[in-house]
Amino acid sequence: MESRTLARRLPDGGSILTAIGFVLLVNLVGAAPSAVSSPDTPWFRALEKPDFYPPAIAFPIVWTLLFTLLGVALWLVWRCDADGRRLALGLFAAQMAFNVAWTPAFFALEAPLVALGIILVLWGLVVGTIVAFRRVDRRAAALLVPYLAWVTFATVLNFELWRLNA
């Protein structure tokens, strides 16, 4: 009996492929802004950076990991038939839109203060998404906690870049 219960909780092969699809989709959407803007500009290189600014290699590693966690979390909520699922998915889409908007606002527009406004809204949407995900699938909400930590760090970093260079 115990093995049948475990078997019902494990995803089947098609479900795993769907999960991989969600992970790839979130990574592609998350990486899309890099096609139009990047930190590799004379403007950004000339900015004074705070002492806690991470090495450049940290950003693609962290974002790939975070977008992978987000993809799995999204898949968990998407496949669930619980109350609040639509709200959770809507909040996820909204926070992704603000996430994607931050990069061109900061790098292409060279507007750290505008980017700070965007990331503050993003932070609130991430908190809302975690709360909404928790009502649908606690595991999905837990997968978003590292993302919230990074967005919190990125908000402080964005503020400091604006403050040091205003």
TrEMBL record:
<dbReference type="Pfam" id="PF03073">
    <property type="entry name" value="TspO_MBR"/>
</dbReference>
<comment type="similarity">
    <text>Belongs to the TspO/BZRP family.</text>
</comment>
<dbReference type="GO" id="GO:0033013">
    <property type="term" value="P:tetrapyrrole metabolic process"/>
</dbReference>
<feature type="transmembrane region" description="Helical">
    <location>
        <begin position="113"/>
        <end position="133"/>
    </location>
</feature>
<feature type="transmembrane region" description="Helical">
    <location>
        <begin position="140"/>
        <end position="159"/>
    </location>
</feature>
<protein>
    <submittedName>
        <fullName>Tryptophan-rich sensory protein</fullName>
    </submittedName>
</protein>
<keyword id="KW-1133">Transmembrane helix</keyword>
<keyword id="KW-0472">Membrane</keyword>
<dbReference type="GO" id="GO:0016020">
    <property type="term" value="C:membrane"/>
</dbReference>
<dbReference type="InterPro" id="IPR038330">
    <property type="entry name" value="TspO/MBR-related_sf"/>
</dbReference>
<feature type="transmembrane region" description="Helical">
    <location>
        <begin position="55"/>
        <end position="78"/>
    </location>
</feature>
<dbReference type="InterPro" id="IPR004307">
    <property type="entry name" value="TspO_MBR"/>
</dbReference>
<keyword id="KW-0812">Transmembrane</keyword>
<feature type="transmembrane region" description="Helical">
    <location>
        <begin position="87"/>
        <end position="107"/>
    </location>
</feature>
